[in-house]
Amino acid sequence: MADPITSKSGNEARGYERSDASASMLGKVGIVLAVSLVCIFVGIVVLFRVFSYLEPLLFDQEPHALAQTRQPISGARLQLDPSQQKIDMKATEDHVLATYDWVDREQGIVRIPINRAITISVKQGLLPQKTDSTKVEP
Q1: For the chain, which residues make up each domain, given as ranges?
Q2: E strands, the chain, in order
């Protein structure tokens, strides 16, 4: 038969780590991780700058002689700079909604700012007016 386990007195019987982690070692590991993270971030920024500098040099070549004979793409195309295109679209929409302009000069059709159009429509009774917060009358 196996010998019975006898309980030892003191620290030997605990069966788990009896010392704390070294605070200085944990601090050093944390500093190394933080410095590594900053270095990786800076390296990626530099890499993207280099790629953006080299891209026109590598890919801005004369088109191939058969490039004009290719079939046009009928599907959707990817946006090259979605954020800038969104800013441009918003500026165009704001300009159209806030300025006067001719739509058709021969027929005398003009475009007026949206706020002015709403005011005129309400005065002429074309839009419903709010009388209180729950009812809308035509």
Answers
A1: 24-59, 84-137
A2: 101-104, 109-111, 129-130, 136-137
